[in-house]
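Same chain as my last thread, 398 residues:
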Amino acid sequence: MTRTNNPTRRKFISNGLAASGALALGVFGGGFATARAARTRFREGLVDEDSESREITGPGSLKAHAGPRGLLVGAAVEAQLLTTNAAVEKIVTDQYSIMVAENSMKVGPMRPAPDKFSFEAGDALVAFGDAHGIKVRGHNLCWHAQLPTWFNSVATKDNAQQLLVDHIRTVAGHFKGKLQSWDVVNEAVQVSDGRPDGLRNGPWLKLLGPEFIPLAFRTAREADPNVLLTYNDYGIETDHPDDVKKRAAVLELVRGMKASNVPIDAVGIQSHIHAGWSTSDGNGLREFMRSIREMGLKIFVTEMDVNDDQIKSEDPAEIDLAVGKTYREYLDLMMQEPALAVVITWGVTDAHTWLGGGRRPNQTQQPRPPQRPLPFDAQNQPTEAFYAMRQSFDTRSV
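reply #2:
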């Protein structure tokens, strides 16, 4: 399976806000409450072709199907998009019970100077959530990427601990009592770096050693005693040999944290997967989740999307169907895990996915259609993934 380049994803900043905002009102004018009747879906049993299944707001919304099953459902979004794009705002308020900032709460945007913090965007997202009854996750307090431009010239082994502690105390303290959870440490495992413990040889490890991880979690707990503290990572969702090794390293890291009484409440499984993922890919994932649950931790799907770059078809309807089937298979497996508490997609609509138009060329070397990885398409209409998510939520035992 092709590996996902996460740093590229993390550097993505939503574009086209003005253009998508101009489309917003026109899209919903004819009845956002039902999926377009002309849409050619309802194949291979993803949904039934009746008026009830086409209703996508109120009792037909994602949150209406997830909530009674003990799940929060949401998406990554920025406050700026919510204020400039009425269509996205409506999707978020209609569909979701939780949100996460795609970029604005990361260390770089949050701390433009060593002695300066920028809370405006994060505060705006929290305010929007409060106004609409939507919880907010914090992402993230410690990560090897998207560090401030000043970091490399300022951070040393002598001051790195204070920089990290000050950042977490200030940021987690600012949002104390306002967030559902924090991704405290993000993507700290990279087995290919060759360390016996599997940790990524990133800037924080180089400056502070492996102790930066418990330091970050303990500081976060001091700053906000009640927020759920999460370790978040990618590349652990299949039985590909690389995923097997990384999953084992993540599990060892979490076990070590629990043994040392490091405060951790949840593990985030990012879930950037490729179309074609099937339950046969998930045997190791099942065991991983069981082990996490047995340690008394919650499990969050934190950044789900489906990359369609390996689909041979150029037909958008066929691509849509394949992505929807992948959502269904993956989430059906996840629904079997009692510790699962949150499902979040990395983006609201295909117009603002980090995957953008980056599909590989077809055999004629012409650009392929844009990626279709999310439950709403670039015209803000529900995709097969939307219906697959609803049906998967309905399979969960209460």
